[in-house]
Amino acid sequence: MQTFTYARPATLAEAVATLEAHGPDARALAGGTDLIIRLRDGSVSPSVVVDLKRIAELRPGIRDGDGWLSIGATTVMTDIAADPRVARQFRALAEAAAVVGSVQIRNRATLGGNVCNASPAADTAPALLVYGAEVVAVGPGGSRRIPIGDFFVRSGETTLARGELVTSIELPVPARRMSAVHLRRTRRRGHDLASVTLCCGVDEAGVARLAFGSVGPRPILAVDATGVLADAGAPAEAKAEILERMYAEASPSPRSMRASPEYRRAMLRVLGGRALRIAIDRLAAGE
Amino acid sequence: MSAEIGGALVGDSPRRVGGHGRVTGLQRYVADLHLPDELHARLVTVPVARARIIAIDASAAERAPGVRFVMTAADLPQPMPRFGPQFRDRPVIAVGETKYHGDPVAAVVAETRDAAEAAVALVRVEYEELPAVFTIAAALDPGAPLVQDPSLRPGDPLASTNVLREHRVAWGDVDAATADLVVENRYTFPIVTHFAIEPHAFVAAPDGDGIAVWSSIQHPNWLQKILAQILSLPLSRIRVFAPDPGGAFGGKQHTKYEPLVAFMALRAGRPVRLVLTLEETFQAVRRAAAEVRVRTGFMTDGTLAFQDIAADYLIGAYADIADRVVGKGSYPGCGPYRVPAARILARSVLSHTVPSTAFRGFGNPQVNWAVESNLDAGALALGIDRLEVRLRNVARRGEAFIPFDTPADGHWEQPLRRAAELIGWGTPLPPGHGRGIALGIKSGPTTGLSYATVRLLVDGSVIVFAGTSDMGQGARTVFAQIAAQELGAPLDWVTVVMGDTSVVPYDQQTSASRSTVLMGNAVLAACREIQAKLRAMAARLHGLAEASVGVDRGVVRLPGRDLTVLEVLVPGLGRLGGELVGNGEMRKDAEPDHPLGGSAAFFEFNCTAVEASVDEETGDVTIARYVTVSDVGKAINPLQVRMQDEGAAIQGLGHTLMEHYVFDETGRIRNLGAIDYRIPTSLDLPLEIVSEIIENEDGPGPYGSKGMSEGALLCVASAVGGAVREAIGVPIRDLPLTPERVWRALQERP
Amino acid sequence: MSDLIPIRVTVNGRARAFDVAAHHTLLEVLRDDLQLTGTKECCLVGECGACTVRLDGRIVDSCLVLAVESDGGEVTTVEGLAPEGGLSRLQAAFLDEGAVQCGFCIPGQVMAADDLLGRVARPTVAEIHEGLAGNLCRCGCYEQITAAVTAAAEAGPG
User: Fold this and answer.
1) Nearest CA to B372 among B190, B513, B192, B187?
2) ipTM for the whole complex
3) I want to staple C12 with a disulfide (CB 3.0 to 4.6 A). Which of B90, B127, B750, C80 is the partner?
4) Residues of C with CB below 8 A from A36's CB?
């Protein structure tokens, strides 16, 4: 790969200053499981790579308090998948983190990297959408919170401004109990990039949330507040009508070599139906 | 589990010879070797399927720091030297035209890997993209551009087409044959690649007035011959080192970039190393794809009346060994059955794609997929059980199932019955499950020549020189076991030397599962020569007639008593010491009138049976139970045999369920590399694998062994396909059976 | 020519200090600068696991780690698993179960298996498959590798 200047800021302010100074010529490095691949294939050629892992204010870790679970941006998937608070309250996120690549990948891949890379197939995105996560970003103008639904633009692009970096992803402890599940479609059972990722959550008030990815330029969240989807006893046709309206937002790329648009749409329906049933069952079981 | 003196080591499974280095990381593969003063090379390609090279400007690259030079066709002898095991069609580097996506046009040589890589981007190639053919239909179109220059095949009427050769096998009269039912279908097999975990690696260095070359090559002597021809050097001045490859499966049999690296080393006056990236290996080697039309005639009782097979194989832009693959692979295409009339027409079709080469199975899996699936189709139409139809038709031992070739050399109904038993054929199936059963057959080597030298040293230790390539199949261990057994040495006192053409005697090649039989017999013969010398020694020492002395494995038998080898060897060699040397040769000569140049030394025979379920919503195939039974004659090392069979099964599940090249509309490969070319992982295994062997000690190799290691790959797809068909009720005739493909078949189900 | 960055890394228990280029991966530095060729190069995109090493207590694909990122850390490669010339119990189990064919993937498999046994004393077959899912074996030794890990687990730490 081409060479670059390696920056290892010790403070957030330093990191922000470096990122702002270089703009698109700088790339943030957390786990490296996406960036190193792009550096090697030449699809990105930054003059500066900013290693975030020694920043004092950016230590990895999961903290709870004030009604939020705060996941440090440099927290790796292994730790997210294993955290008992995530498993208990945000189970679909734990499930998603557990399938990001292999053990070796999960030991390095970070939540911040997964969202900033903004792949439409990002495994954690659907769960974050269902749970209503917020991204905390720090930049030259200070700190701000970006609802995850406003974060993804298209593949590789987020609404982060120049010089901004993500410091944590925060999940609100829901006021009402919600059960959710993460499902995905791959080409083999072994680890793989997903051709459909999906998360479905159902809460005590009967609100159903369905988020899906890899079927369009960005992951999408659809919400049903009628209570029909969440109702185990509601007729299938009524559910189908609501689900079809949700799926209508999907626009899978015809150019993908991983799966055709027809198959993706079909699997969206299959996974959506399965996820809904699992979420309803989990809620009923008190999970 | 270490060996014991005088123990019966053949038939045991001692620890793999060479295993210690593999688990500790101490073993050196080619890419682990470094020579003093070495230079690093990288290849330059153009990002299109086919192009006319207008000009190459390497000036900026050659000025870059650390770059020694850039080599192109203009720097090589004129006319461009060409090579290839079948046709001398392949240039050392592309000249005038690149013929496939990945065909190198230049090579950068630099002091460091970084410098070489950076300079690649500075080489300016001016080219004009040309239309490329990369499917069989496109290649056969009368208006198609010709892949190969017709002047390479003077006088050949096919030279004006992209058909390289036609191979015909026939017996009986297919057109006059009567049948109660004729089933005709078309099947396809995808382009897949070997994906050995070790990418190809090559090093060359000037060596006095000659050259030394290190390569991950399976055939070091063959490489030596080609280098001698291209470099105009005597064989004695070319030394090929062939460290054990890190997986090969046929993809490292034949010369690829060694001549280029040799020219670069000679020009530089220093060692030059070229290690391919994984993506570059996908652009260097692959299996031939195939479209096979099968017309099978059946009688109402399920017996075969005729087989009429037309197989088109899509080979690459250079022939490599691909045409031999087509000829030899299609030849036993009717399968191990009694077929009264047969006609096989197989064609090797050139295309602007990566040269296809040998790959485990050697052209047989493609035809097997079609013929076994068609057999199932006929059985279903007739209402006959698919196991039964095979039992009715399978050739019995001694029958000339291919009239002019080696008769059936095994009790083939045994693996068939055993596999059926192990899969529970005929027992009730859970809903949504199906079973498949299939037979695979492949001709072993048709010619061969292996020499071995064995040295029995004064302390009883042994050195075996055998030119086979141990790429994981365990050849080293097999030869060590034979020598240990015959000469009474502990296994860890036997050293096996391979992979050095200056030191190890000639071996024709490591392919066609030949080495246990051919080289094994050569090693055995060398041991016998030493045993004869021991007999003479014992006779001399004890004043006996030689005829009264026997050597039986590690024991010297005199009338009335037994002595160890050492008890004869040490006094026999006397005060000056020394050693006993034995040489062995195993040869299988060509039969010029035979369609394949020779009859098969043995057949590899396998029965695979599968139980699978299909998730009808997603198309996912789950293999609940996988059974493989091979007829091996004698397992010299049963654990290694089992691992070869299970490994072949898992490899075969790759092309069955997930592997295939994806091309764009211009013929460029889209899924280069490991992210989008999927091979089976530990999570993709069948829920249960059972492998067994049949040992009737009826093979031509040492102790009645036959060759094995390809057999278990031959009918993976057919068996899985049969199970899937039963599970979903419709046949699928194209591979791989990806979830999406299975899903589509379900959507189209009537 | 890029500037070299001085780093200090403990490699296989030995404190080392050396200079690396920013863009060189840990894999390249281990193989080319430290001559630890046991760790292998294959896919270079974090899919095959042939480059698996332990970094600060966790296994990673060293092809996706810049050497500079390991500064101040601890790296263990396959060469560091056993005493000089010896075999760990896990490595011996690989040999006894025949879990080795061509051997090229084996250093990575052994590293991943060693990591798994450090986290789960008696892993189930499913846990072994998941723990080693990031290590491709084209020779298809998965069953024997699984048996070796199981055998090593039963034999206890060593």
Assistant:
1) B187
2) 0.98
3) C80
4) 25, 46, 63-66
